[in-house]
Amino acid sequence: MNMNMKLTKLMTIGALVAGMTAVAGAQSGGGAVGAEEREVLAAQKHFYEAYRTCDEQEMAKLVTDDLLYVFSVGFMHRGKEEFLKSLEPEGCGWDVLQVDVNDVRILGDTAILVGDFKYKGKNAAPVDANLMAMQVFVKRNGQWLFAANSTTEAIPLGASKGLTSQ
pTM value? Predict the structure, then answer.
């Protein structure tokens, strides 16, 4: 094999490796967090800090008017007003209230976050549940607002009473 063919083969292999690395990085999110992801994660953290400390005025600025907040125990709040009203008089007050986000998807002005939901009420026993949350944020007038939440308890397949009869 002459030197030109070896060089061409080496460059082709290098280009293929670089291309596959770029595709794999794009599919996995590349491990790097971009500006949009940082902004939405900051908005999510800000919301949960306001929620944890019962800062109703701050929470009102951080959610959409049509907020939909679904709880793992089967009830939901429809709209900002209903959600904020649920905080009075004993609807909040937490030692721990957070979602440890492990995936962020940005789709234009919409972001979807998925993570592990953790909470512990003030002076209460720790909650021993494997809860996951999926959240939606929308960007309006340059600000990420909390639009929807759904928490669910991750249980082994077959452990659900509703699925065992099927």
Answer: 0.74
Rounded Cα–Cα distance for residues 11 and 21 (Å)? 15
Question: What are 73-126's pLDDT values in tens digits?
Answer: 888 999 999 999 888 766 677 788 889 999 999 999 999 999 998 888 888 887
Query: Is the separation of the CB atoms in 91 and 74 below 8 Å?
Result: no
Instruction: Please indicate, yes or no, if residue 162 is contained in any of the structural domains.
Output: no
d(CA 100, CA 155): 19
> For residues 114 and 134, is the Cβ–Cβ distance under 8 A?
yes
Q: State which residues form the domain around 111.
A: 36-153
Element (H, E) at 99: strand 94-107
Number of domains within the chain: 1
CATH classification of the domain holding 123: 3.10.450.50
The 10 Å Cβ neighbour count of residue 20 is 10
Q: Give a yes or no: residue 11 inside a domain.
A: no
Q: Which amino acid is at 117?
A: F
Nearest alpha carbon to residue 101 among 24, 25, 26, 40: 40
Cα end-to-end distance, the chain, whole Å: 65
